[in-house]
Structure formats: C-alpha cells, structure tokens
Design brief:
The protein is α+β, with helices and mostly antiparallel strands. Helices cover about 35% and strands about 20% of the residues. The strands form 4 sheets. A 5-stranded antiparallel beta sheet has the order 4-3-2-1-5, with no helix packed on it.
Length: about 450
Amino acid sequence: MKRPLFRRCGHAPGALSPEDQAAVDAFRAMLAARANPQSWTPGSNQDIALQVGPFIERARPRHGDDHGPDVIAVALVHPDDPHVRYGDRYTRKGWLRCETSTILGTWTPAYRMLTRAAASLDLPTDVGMPPAHYAVHIAQCPKGELGQLLLRIGPYTQCHHAERDADRLNAQLQNAEAVAKTVPFDVSDHASYRDPYEEDIDALLAATVGGEEGTAPQEEATATLTNTSLRCPQCQGTELTAGIVRYRGGGADIANLSCVVCGCTWEVWETPDVPGPHYAAAYADAPTLAEEEAELEALAKDLNARSATALTGTGPSVPSIDHRLFLLRKAAWLDRAARELEMGQYLGGIPAARVEDGRMQATQAARTLLAWDLEHDQDDVAGPIGPDSSAWTTAAGARAYVRQEYRALLDQEQEAEDRAHMEPRRGPDGELYDTTGNPL
C-alpha cells in the first residue's frame, strides 16, 4: 500500500522554505535549458546533452573524433561525473556512435533532473547507439617521422583484431618507409575507411604502397636483452631471453621469458618477482589505452577547473579521493604503455631510449601514487598490502603497487555495478523501485 504524500500547496501563505525555493529554481533552470539549449560546437571538447530514449543523458565526445558532421564518438557518463560514488555510477557502455541530430546542445547541470540517475535508474542494455570501434591507419614514415596518411582500415569490432592486423602489416612494411598503427575508429570520417571484414587488406596494402604479402613460415626464435625493469624471480638476473613466435602472414608474439643465468622460465604476462596481480589479472576488463588516455584528459581538465575555483574561493575544495583517482589511473596507463614498449623491444623496432623513457615515466608515476597514499594515512588504499610495505621499494615494486590498486578499483566498480542490477533503489518520490524502474 502506498502512503499518501503531503506536499506544500503552491498557494499557501508565507515565503517558500530554502529547500522548496531550491527545487523551484532547479525546475526553472531545466525549463530554460530545454527552451534555449546552449549550442554545441564540434571539436570544442565539451560534454553534450543527448536524447536517449525518454531521458536526457550526459555524453563525453572522444577527443579528435568529435567534428561530425553526421556522426561522432561519445561515452555516456553519469550526470555527476566525476564526483559520483562507485555504487551510483552508470554501467560502462564504452565508446558509441552518436548521430549529431540527437544532440540537444552543450551539457549543463540543469538537465540532471531529466536523467536516469535522477530516477535512480541505470542505463538500459540497449541505448540505441552502436559501438564506435577501432581502426588501423597506414601512414608514410620517412626517417622515422609520421607523414601523409595513406590508407584507413576499419572498423574493427575488437581492439586486438586491429592490433593483430597492424602487426602483420608492419612486417610487410619494413622496407616501404611506412607504418601501420592501431587507433580509435574515426566515425566522423567513416566513408574514408576500407572494411577489413569485406576486403582483402593485403591487396589494399599492395595497391597503396606496393607491399607484398608476408610469406615467412611460422617459426620460433629468441632475442636476448638486458632489461633493468624485468628480473628473474629466482636469481634476480636482468639478462633475459624472450621466446618469439613469428607467423606466416607476418607479425610476432612473445611466448615466454627465461633467465640466461639460471634458466628459470615464466609466461610473458606473469610478474613472479613482485607481489600483487600480474598484468593479465590487473588489467582484465580495463579500458583500452586509447580510451584511458581520453578519460584522463577529461579528468585532468575537470580537476584543474575545480581547483581553480577552489583557490579563488568561488567553489568547494576538491576531495583528496578525486586527486588520488587521477594519480592511480595515470600511473596504471603509463604502466601498461611502458610494458608494451618493454615487450616490443624484444620484437625489434623500438629504440632502447624510448623504452627507457617510458619505463622512467611509469616508475615516477607509481612512486607519486605511493607517496600520496603514505602522506594521506592510506585513507583510500583498497589493496591487501599497504603502501608502507618493503615490497614496493624497488622500481618494479612501485609499478606492482599500481597494479594492485588498479585491480582493486576495477573490482569495486564491478561490485557496485552488480549491486545496482540486484538491489532496489528509492526514487525521488520516496518509493522503492526495482532495477527495471517498476514500483515495488
């Protein structure tokens, strides 16, 4: 049985209470925003308001892929992002293809009461927008510098499909002064791409740059390097051999690592010399590096703007957990990027100086996070081993601490998402609703 709700009559005598006045002001602001939306300019790097079903949602355009004119790439975010609690976040939908005709204008907080979050609802399974996928760009590369773009291949439905083809094409381009790179699919220029699932990309490559299809037989090889950031778990040696598998169509993968001194062998994704989760476990279900980079740019911009208002006294101070989230995600992004460089060095083609630069940046970011957690009394540490442990004192240990905390962050987000799908929520009218929005 529903309880009757007693509300204040609009014609009651006396002034409105502060709470009622705030509600009236918010409603008037919403009506004004709907009647006169702020125009959105493609390429302005501003969040937008989208019509998603009967609701209006906040969306964040992908940097560099927001110039239209018909389609751009966006990610749906919670209207309170990045200040929303873990348990209230929207389920991630990744990057989506958004028709510009559904854009109402630049996002403003006045739209919040029209979102699913205001009704204590999560995003539906189908938001009416297909995913924005990945692509391979082939460009001239004279003297090691990127030049004219020669060919665009895409969209790929999964990132590792694009990376596989990019590796194979790079093997064919070694003597052609060109390079293939995996990038986000630019939906704004979708007409300029060649579909990899319907066309022969080797024939396209040959017609574009005169390449020839790779014919090397599948074989196993080894490469030995001294890598100061990778150590043998038994003897702590740094002279390691990588077992390399090369494929007939071109491209290669590292199968395992082994120590030259003691012969110990381990999988390439394992990190037996340091505690915490290994790379495969730490970054499972993590956004791609391109997606993480775009989210970091947006997060940094937001933190800078909020910090500026706090310094001038025109806004509240930024909570320490928001600063830590940025430090953690940046350190994890640099750790993953450095790992790709470290493995790529064994396959050849990546200068040692570039690998060392990536390694130093990852280590410095990891140590910054460790110092932050120690200075703030470990308030937001979620992993089982605290930052004061001696296990994190080495360069590899500092990066292992980042993986521990990033895995804990992903687990918290997954737990909150699971809970949101099972637990009822209380709506703005005070009643309980199930996960589909039906009253209980």
